[in-house]
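Weekly modeling sync, notes
Attendees: S.R. (lead), two postdocs, one rotation student

Agenda item 3: backlog of single-chain predictions. S.R. asked that every request posted to the team notebook include the full sequence so nobody has to chase files. The rotation student volunteered to paste the first one in as an example of the format we agreed on. Action items at the bottom.

Example entry:
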Amino acid sequence: MEAIISHVGADFDGLASMVAARKLYPQARLFFAGPPEQGVRDFMNLYKDFFPVDTPRDPGKLPLKRLILVDCRNPSRFGSFSHLVSNPQMELHVYDHHPPSQQDIKGDVNVIEEVGASTTILVKMLVEKNIYLTPMEATLMALGIYEETGSLLFKSTTPDDAAAVAELLRRGVNLSVVSDYIFHYLNDEQRKLLNELISSSQVLSINGFKVLVARSSCDKYVDGLALVTHRLHDLERMDAVFTVVEMSGRTYMVARSIRLAIDVSRITRFFGGGGHPTASSAVIRNMPPAQVEQKLKSVLKRSIKPQLRAADIMSTPVKTLELRPDMSMKEAFEHMHRLGHFHLPIIKDGRLEGIIERRDIDKAEHHGYGNAPLEVYMSRPVITTNPDASIFHLQNMMMEKGIGCLPVLNGSALVGIVTRSDVLEAVYRREMDGMHSKKRPLDQIKKLPRFLRDILKTCGRVGDRLHVSVYAVGGFVRDLLMEVENLDIDLVVEGDGMLFGESLARMLKGKAKVHEKFGTSTVALPGGMHVDVATSRTEYYTRPAALPEVMESSIKQDLYRRDFTINAMALRLNRKFFGELLDFFGCRKDLRSGIVKVLHPMSFVDDPTRILRAVKFEQRFHFRMDQATENLLKDALASNAFKGVSSERIRNELLEILEEPRPLAAIRRMDQLRILRIISPGLSLDSRMVEIIESITATLVQFDAIVKREEVTRWILYFNALVMRLEPAEIREIADRFKVSSAIASRASFDRDQVHAIIRTLCSRTLAPSELYRSLDGLKIETLLFLMARTRMRIVRSRIVHFINTLRHVKPVITGSELKRWGVEPGPAYKKILAALLDAQLDRRFSSPEGAREFFQQRLSPLCPPLGKGEK
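Predicted structure, as returned to the notebook:
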C-alpha cells in the first residue's frame, strides 16, 4: 500500500500537493497526518467528495510499503505518521520546496526545488507527463500556489510558480472559488486575539530594521494564528512581525517578514520550527510565553544583519560645481555633460548651496532660458542625509520628496552622494543576498584554473596590504560569468594604480611597466601573462568624438564610463570580500538576457567607435542591441558621428571585427546599419561578396595549421572581399587613409587584373607544375588563400592547394655553387639556368644532382658561355 501525506496543520499547498501527487501515484491513498488548517477544513466540508482524504487513528496498522511526503521533509511534523517516516525500512518519496535544514529526511526519491509552492513542483511534472487534470483539480492546485505565494506577490515567488498558474488556468481554474478561500475574514475570537496582540506589541530596532514582537495567551485554542499575524503585519507594516501566543498548554510562534535580510525560517528554527525566509512558524512545548519572548529577542539581535547605510552605497568623492555670480544654466549643463552626471551639487565658499538636475537644465534650454543665472534656478534648500541613514530610510525619503538624489553630509562637509539607482540597486542586492546566502564567491571563480585563482587572490592580498580596494573589471568579469576562457586580467584600484602594480610585480616575481601619464601600470608575469592595472577614474569629453579627459574617481564612476552594461561589472578581490560582484547598472541581467546596452544616451556621441564595438559584441556572443541603444546608434550615424574620429581608431576597431573567427554576421550587421560606408561611400554587400566571405572562413579552417604557423593576417582576406568591387586607386586611397603599414599592405592582393590573370592561367587543362609554380611564386600566403576562396572552379582550388602544400616547399637540387663546379662562368646566365633547372625538377624530369647534371648537358649547355678550366 502507498500513502500520500503532508505536515500536521496542512494548508492549501499541502492539500493541493497531495492531490497532485496522487495523479503521479494513482494507487496511493491520501491521509491527513493531523488536523488541517481551518480554511482547509472548511474547503473539505464542501469538496470532500472530489478529494477523499482519510485521517487514520493508528497509521501503524496500515500495510504501508511506501510513503509519499509532500510540502515537508521534517520528520517531527508528520504527527501520527512520524514514527513511520523515521523507519529506515520504509520507502520514502519526497516532494518539497522549503529551504534545507539539518533535520531534513533524505528519501529514496527526492524532488526538491526552492520555488514558491510545493504544488508548483508537482504541476510541472504533471504538465511534462501530459497528465489530464479536471477543472476542480486545477482549481485546488491554483489555490495552493496562490495561498503559498501570496497571490504571486511574496518574495519567494519564482517564474516557475507563475508558469504553473498559467498552465492551470488553461485547464479551467474557477477563480471565484480561489478568491473565496484566499481572502479570509476574521471571526470573533480571531479579532479579539488581534486586538490583544496589538495592545501588547513592542517595536524593536535592530541594526536599522523595525521588528514587531507581540505576546498573548488564550484559555482555549484559537485557530488561524497565521491569519491573525498576517493581518497584524498588514496593519503595522514593520520589516518583520513575530507573534507568541500560549494556547491549550503550548506556545505557538508565527513570523512574517518583508525583508529577505530577516530570514524568519532561520529564527524559528531555534524553537524547533521552520518554513520560508518570509513566513515561518513553530510550536514550543515546556517553555512559557514570557521565556519564549526573551529568547526570541536574543535570537533576533544575533541573527539580523546590519542594514546597508548611506556611507556603504554613496559615491565619493563628489564632483561639484563652484558657484559664481555670473554662472549660467548653459555653463552648468556643459560641466554636467563632461562629467556624464544627472545631478550636480553647487558649492559656494566650501558649503553646499544648491543642487541642479539634468531635467531642470533641459527644461531651461527648451524654454529659452539657457543663459539664465544658475543661482536663480538651482534647487535649494537641498534635502540631504547623513552617512548612517539606512537604505530603507533613503528609499522612503526619495519617495516622499520625489527627488532623485541625496547629498550625504557629515556635519556641514559634503562626503558623498546617493542616487535613486544606488538605493534601488542596494535594496535589490540586499534582498538577493537574503535569497542567495552563498552569493560570494561566485561559483564561476571555482571553475577557473588554479593558477588564475591564485593570481586573483594575490591581487587581493596586495590591496589589503596597501589598504586599497582592488577589482577585476571589464571583459574578464563578463567572460567569467559566461564561463568563457579569458586570461587578460584588467584591474582597477581605488588608490594608486602605479604603486599597486609595482607591489604586485614583486609578489608575483614579475616586472612592472609604469605609465605615469595615465596613472596605470602593466605587470608582466613569468610565462607571458600580463595584468593591466589602472586607478579608478572617470572620463569626460570636451567635444564629441574627442579622446577623453581623465580624472580620479570611485569604482562606480569608473564602471559608468565604460561602453556597455555587459562590460561594466567588477569583481572585488580583497580577502574579506573576495568574489563579490559589483553590478550597479543591472549588467548581469543584460548579460543573461543577451542584450548589448549603452550606459547613457551620449555614449555613441562621446565615442563613436563604440558603434563598431556594439556590433562586435552583438555578433560575437549572439546578443542583440536593445531598441533604445540601436536608436541611439542610428542617430549618431545620421549625424556623421565618425567625422571627428581619427582613422587609426576606426581602423583598429574594424580590424578587430575582421579578425573574429566568423565575421560574416558582423559584416552583414554593419551593412544593414550602413556602417560599411565609413570604409568607402556607397560600399555595400552583395551576394557574391557574401559567398566569398563564407568561403574565406572555410579556407582558413581548412588551412588552420598553416594560418597559425605562418601568422596569417586574417583580416586581409576579408578586407579584400569587401573592396573587390572598387578600383585599384580607390583601394590604395583606403589603405593610405587608414594608415595601413606598407609591410601589411604588401601582403594584400589589391590588383583585380592580376587576380583575374592568375585565375585564367590556373584554368589551363595542360598546365605543367612549373607553370603553376611560376604563376603563384612570390605571392603572400594571404593572397594565395584569398585566390582559393574567391574561385568557384575546383581545378583552380586544387592547384592552389597543391602549390601551398607541396610546390612552394620544393628545394632546388642544384645551386649556383654546383654550376660553378661544372665550369659555368658566373654571370647573367646563372639566373636563367637555375630557373630552367628548377622548372625541369618541378616537372619531374630529374630528382637528383646527377639527373640535373645530365639534363644540363643535354638541354642547357648551349645557353652557357664557353666552359673554363672547371670540371667537364
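Discussion: group reviewed the output briefly. The chain is about 45% helix and 15% strand.
Action items: rotation student to repeat for the remaining queue; S.R. to check formatting next week.
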